[in-house]
Amino acid sequence: MNYETDEEKVEAIKKWWKDNGLSVIAGAAIGIGAIFGWRLWVGHQESTASEASIAFEQLLLDAAGNQPDAVASQAGMLQDEFGSTPYPALGSLVAAKTLYMAGKPVEAMASLQTVIDKAPDPALARIAALRLARIQVSENQLDEAEKTLKAHDTSPAFAGEFAAVRGDIAVARGDLAAARAAYQQAIEQGSSLSQLLRLKIDNLPAAG
Amino acid sequence: MLQTIRDRAQGWIAWVIVILISIPFALWGIQSYMGVGGEPIAATVNGFEIPARDLDRQVQEARFELRERLGAAYDPAEFDDKRLRAEVLDNLIQEALLMDVVRRLGLRASDQDVQMQILSDPSFLSDGRFDKEIYERLLGFQGMTPAMYEAQLRQKMTATQLLRAVSASEFATRSELALHQRLMGQKRELSYVRFPIADYRSDAPIDEAEVTAYYEANAGRFQTPEQVKVDYLLLDTDSLMSKVEVSEKDLRDFYDADRSRFVQPERRGVRHLLIKVAADADEAGANAVLEEIKGIRERILAGESFEELARTLSQDPGSAANGGSLGVIESGIMVPAFDQVAFSLPTGEVSEAVRTPFGYHLIQVTEVLPSEAKPFEAVRDELRSELSKQRAEGLFYDLGERLANISYESRDSLEPAAEELGLTIQQSDWIGREASGEGILAQPKVIAAAFSEDVLVARHNSDLIEPERDRLQAVVLRVAEHRETSTKPLSEVRDEIVAELRDEKAKKEVMAAAESLAEKLRGGLDWAEGSASLKPEAPGLVDREAAEVPGAVLDTAFKLPIPAEGMASVGTTMIDTGDAAVVRVTKIQDGEVKTPGEGVVAPEAFMLTQVMGRQTYTNMLRDLEVRAAIKRKAIDADEAL
Predict the structure, then answer these.
(1) In this complex, is the C-beta atom of A131 within 8 Å of any C-beta atom belonging to chain B?
(2) CATH code for the structural domain at B266-370
(3) Residue A136: pLDDT over 90
(4) What is the ipTM of this complex?
(5) Fold assignment, A9-154
(6) Which residue of B has its CA nearest to A192?
(7) pLDDT (tens digit per residue) in B115-139
(8) Chain A residues 148-177 with a CB less than 8 Å from chain B
(9) Which residues in B596-634 are b (16+ Cβ under 10 Å) and which e?
C-alpha cells in the first residue's frame, strides 16, 4: 500500500488500532498475567513444600523420641494438609516403623499401604511393599505377603531383597527346596545380608 | 536522495535485508539454552548435564586425597586413572540422580532449616557466634554468592531428608529378629575324627611322565621374571656425615650463636591452698570466701602449718593430699595472676590472697632453683652431630646437583661421576619389577627407573632419583645386566614337582579314607561301630566362635543339614594342616530368643536395621538409575598431574 500523505498514514494506523487494539491489550495482559501467575504458583508450591518439610522434620523428631501417638497424629496431619506434596508418603513410611516398634503391626501395615498407594515415586512404593510383606510374614499372613511381593517385584534393583522374603515365606510353608532356591537367588543378587542368608540356608533341615 | 532510499525501502529487498539482520539478534545467546558449542559434557542424567569440568575437578580432588592418605606409597604411575575417573563419574551420576528425584518429587528443605544449618556451621563462627563477614568471605573464596550457596546447601539437605526417610525408617520384624538370634546363638553338638596326612605320605617313586605332564601344565609357575642387575651411586646424608669436618672452633661459634637454647630457666617449688568461688557467685559471695581465706592466712602466720591446713581445707583435689604441693614448676604454666605471685614471692613466705578464675589461693614458695646454663662441654657431642648433619645436608644438595649433571653429560658410564665426587659404585643383585631389592632398591621409583626404556634399552644412566621426598637420599643407576623372563628347566624344579605330586596324592588318599568312614557313618553307624581303632574328639555343644575346634571342622559342622531326632549329619573336610576330618553333628540347639522390653531395641536389631537401611538406600538409587536416561561420554584420562 502506498500512502500519499502523512495524514493518511496516521489515519490508517488509527483504524488498525481501532480494529486490533483490544486484542493487542488482551494479549499483553494475558501474557503478563501468565508470567505472574506462574511465579505465584511456583512460590506457592515452594512454600507449601517448605511447610510440609517442617512438619515432616517434626515427625522425624517424634519418631526418634519413640512417641508413637505423636508420630501417628503428625502423619495424619501431613495427609490432611499437605496431600499435594510427597511428604505424606515419607511421613507414613517413618510412622510405620514407629508403630511397628510400639507393638502395633496392624496400624503399621495400614501406614505402609498408604505409602504404596500414594508413593510419588515407584522406588518408594517398592520399599514400602517390601516392608509390608515382611511384616505380613512375621504376622503369619503368608498369602497376603505373597500377593504383596508379586505386585511389586518389578525392579532388578530390589530383586535380591524380594527373593529373600520369598525364601522366608517358603520356609514358613515348609517348602525347603523353594526356600533354598530363593535364598540362593537373593545372595546372587548381592543382598547385603548374604551372610545371614547363608546361615538360613545352612539351617534348613536335610532335604528328603 | 533520502526520497530514493525511502522509496526503495518499501520493496521486498529491504524486507529480506531486515530479516537477515534480525536473525543474529533473535538467536543471540541461544547456544546457552541448546547446549550447542557449550562446554564439554561428561554425562547427562535425565537431561541434566554434568560438565566435564566438574568431573576433572573431582578427579583431581580424589587423587589429592589418595596421595594424602597413602603418603609415600602413592605412585601416580601405578595408578589406574581411567578407573578412578569412572568411579568419580559414577558418584557424580548418583548425586545427580538424587538431585533429580528430589526436584521431581518436589521435596524442599525449609528456609528455617537451611538457616539453622548455616548459623550453626562451625566454619562460620567467630567467638561462638555466627559471623556474617566470615560467611561472605569464605563463600567468596569459592566464587559463590550467599544465594548460590544457600541453594546448593538446600539441595544437599533435601537429599539428606530423603535418605533419612528411607533408611531411618527401616526395622527388623519380630520374626526376623527372633530368627537372627536363634541362628547367631546356635550351638551344635559335634564330634570329629582326624586323619593325619602324615600317615598317607609315601616315598614311592613318582612316574616320570606324571612329572613332565605337571611341569608342562604349570609352566607359568616355574618362570623367573624379567630381572636386571644395576650399578648405582648412592648419596645420602648418613654416609656424608662422616665426610664433613667440624672443628672445635666451629662448635664453639655454634654454641655462642645460640646460647639461649642451653639455658634452663628458673624453676620454683610451690604449694598452694585454694578456696573456690562459684562461677556464678556475686560480689558478696566472693567477699565471704575472701574473708574465709584471710582467716586461714592468719592461722598460718600465727604458726599453724601451711601443709596441714592445705591438706584439710584446700579445695584443689589434685594437690590437697600432698599438702598443697604443685611440685617444681616453670613460669608460664599457671594462670597469669598465680604465676606472677609465685615467681616474685620470697621462699617461705605466705602470699596475700590471690584471685584467679578458680577462686582464692594462698601461695607459698618452698624452693627456688635458679636458672642455669649448660656448659659447652656438656652439649658438645650434641652440637657436633647437629652441625655435621647440617653440613652433610648442604653437601648433599651440592653433590646431588653435580651428580645429576655429570651422570647426564656422560650418560654411558657412572665412572666419571664416581671419580669426580669420590663416590663408590655399588652393585645390586638380580632385581625384578616386583620390588625385590633391599633398602633403596626396593623403592618403586627406583625400580620404575631401572626398567624404563631409556635405562633398560638404551642403557643410559638414569636421572637422579630421590625415592622418598622427606629423606635426603638420591641415587643414579644404570643397568649392568638384564635377563628376560624364562622358564626354569625341568631338572631344576623336579624335586619341587615331586614333592607337590606326593602331597596331592596324600591329600587325595586321606580324603578318600575320611570319605569312606563318613559313608559308613551316614548309614547310621556310631563312631565305635564305624571303626574300633578311632579316637574321636568330642567337644560337645559349641557355638560358632568356639576356638578349641579347628576352623574347617567348625565351618563344616555348622553347614551340615539339621539331623533328624536321634540321627546324625556327617561331613568331611580338610583342615589347614592337610589333615582330613570326619565331622558328625548329633544335636542342634538354637540361640535364645530375647524379647526386648517395650521401647528397648535389641543390639542385634539395631545392627540388622543399620545394614538393611543402607541396603534399601542403595537399592533405591539403583532403581532410580535403572529407570533414568543416563548418557556417559567416553572417558578419556586427562593428562596426569
Answers:
(1) yes
(2) 3.10.50.40
(3) yes
(4) 0.84
(5) 1.25.40
(6) B615
(7) 888 888 888 887 778 888 888 888 8
(8) 155-158, 161, 168
(9) eeeeeebebbeebbebbbebbbebbbbbbeebbebeeee
